Known about the structure:
Elements: E1 7-10, H1 16-20, H2 24-27, E2 31-33, E3 43-56, E4 59-75, E5 79-94, E6 97-98, H3 103-109, E7 113-116, E8 121-124, H4 127-141, H5 149-154, H6 159-175, E9 181-183, E10 186-194, E11 204-216, E12 227-236, H7 238-255, E13 265-280, E14 287-302, E15 305-321
Antiparallel strand pairs: 1-10, 2-9, 3-4, 3-15, 4-5, 5-6, 5-7, 7-8, 10-11, 11-12, 12-13, 13-14, 14-15
Helix pairs in contact: 3-4
Amino acid sequence: MTVPTTARRTRPLLAAALVAVVAPSTVEAQTIELGFGWRPGMAAEVRMENVTETEAAGMAFSVFFRTRHRSVVSETADGFQISNSDYEVLDFDTPMGAAPVTPELLAASQPSILVSRDGAFIDIVDAEGRAATVREELAAAQEELPPGMGGVLEGFADVEALRRTAEEQWRGVVGWWVGRTATAGETEFSTLTQQLPVPGLDAIEVDVEMTMTGRVDCVQESGANDCVELVVLGRPTEASLTAAMAGLVGRMTEQMGGMVSPGQLAIDEWALETETRLIAEPETLVPYRSEIVVEQTMTMAVMGMSQSTWTVNSTTTEYDWEGR
């Protein structure tokens, strides 16, 4: 990730919802240093809920799942290891019924990671082993997976894609914000380089808007006002998205194995937007809740026939920290 020189200026907040969570009396002088304070021995139960809604070819359908796992921080020579274990699939529904996603597959696709003492992402733990587990689990469940699910999960069988996904997940919790000074109601504008978690595709440039809305409760309705809400809105630059479209078309043509020839497949339109909302302690960036919404619209032409697809993926994660 490369972050060039940033232009900072005050402007109206991204949406009226942002204003609602900040009391007017606290906005004026609320400037906070955002640090990294994860420490060995920290442990949390992590609950995640994911909903994907899709409209395509005149049909609408959704995929929903809920999971739970344990996350523990330990010390390493270079920083910390954040170990994720004890995965449980609490619920998983698709248009075809319950999907056979095992705890082993879930654990392999969401690996333990290594970070530095100042919160920088280093690597995932046992990358080759994790990718091999994904391949084994997919092979065992391939016939039972609903249409399209196998293709989505195959991305986690690639070591580099697995690493990129883990880094993006960590950035959503810590990497966006660590070391920054944020003022409530002020939006910071940046352009950064983001590596997509798709093998073979080049990194893209993303225009980013970052806003700290103000103080909120770490634990909802506690009245402690001890966390802050941090919001990131990202959109790929037009030139970068055009290049990514060309790369994606080439990859899809190759994957279709001769079913279409070059020139018979094209992406006419691709709009992509990601919004991340994080509730975390400002001094430590220990998270309590995050919401990530990815919305995209794609119009694709295959052998002269055009089809548009609209997709929204929402992931909500809650952390129940022991002793905090």
